[in-house]
Fold:
Amino acid sequence: MMGQIQEIFPESFDLYYPQWQTLLKSLTLAPDDPVDHIYGLIEGDQLIGAVSNLGPIIKQVAIPKAHQGGHVFNQLISFIMNQLAAEDVFHYFVYTTPSHQNAFEHLGFDTIAQTDDLVFLEKGFHGFKYYLEQLKTKLRDQPTAAIVMNANPFTLGHLQLIQRAAQENPQVLILLVSAQRSLFTFDERLALVTQGTAHLDNVVIAPTDYYLVSNGTFPTYFLKERAPLQVAEKQARLDAAVFTQYSTVLPITKRYVGTEPTSAVTEIYNRIMAEAFKDKFPLVIQPRQTLQSQVISASKVRQAIQTNDLALIQAITPLTTYQFIVAHLTELQQRKEF
Amino acid sequence: MNVELKHQAIAGTTESSDIQIMIEPNTNEGIEIQLDSSVQFQFGKQIKLVIMDTLEKLDITQAYVKATDQGALDCTVKARTLTAAFRAADIDQDYDWQVID
Structure:
């Protein structure tokens, strides 16, 4: 018997929502992870499988043991691909455990990178190899320093890191995180980084196109341990594995990162990356710039937006970021942040 | 019948006995087919031939096709290819099903 797939709404009126929460918890998945849509496969009045998406990322694939290894998986993944196609999304990503790698590859997904704990796969026309080849055409064939940033929003801390890299290297590649899980949209973040670095002529800016994430955007739903530090270690290892592939195609000779003395997650991230890149290229760690002994960070700017502290924003952001925030203050205060 | 592909489109499912066809306009001349099939070894050539033949009947000469086959019969391959092409061309009425024969 084939079940029926329907959207499940995270509201009390949806009778299947409690079943869905129970199902996810039974599979050690986190029901509170942000998603755009949840779809459930209903047979009789039982929920026998579910899948969610956040933008093009397929997540929370949840199938009870009794229905694993059968048609339920194919039906759900197939359904969500068609749903995304209706939203003009034809490139899908999934983070999963190695135990599900075969099942996804069987549906035409290709593995981008893997570690002992995690696999990152995609399905679409122009995959990771094509993305890297396109990126290569934007760069001159010169030693290049790479910086991955979310720049949510672009601060003087980011600027200082880029300026240092631009002085020490013939070329700098800024990889801006594409995932839309930030207060500032991708287009806004891109515009502010572009304007803020317009005075540097050896800087190239490109989107990560979902291939790389920042530790603020990595999905944690699939990990048993909700402890942020163990999550950070696993995500850092996978992210480092993806970045290593960038360096095999592009002339990357160094990676620059900032530190955040108050964040243990960032510390772990940087330690894991240093280990992973050890024999390949150096990881340059730049201490955060401080203002009156306080570190400058994008999260401070976001807090200041909420508290109307324009003086602080002016002190720790480039003029272009400050002007943008002043012009859009009310709108930014009303936006919902994940 | 002259069908012009305007954007990406998808048709079919990845369920058993079906085929999922993703199609996209190709800036280069020619039709490029990337096929993943559970019966690639036995029927890979035949499936590609059916896709190619169906597109040619629609006068499509430039396309990328990504096909994920789960053991579909030829008639299914044809139907899914047609639907994907029509969707990519924004044709939502006056289908020319004649090309199936």
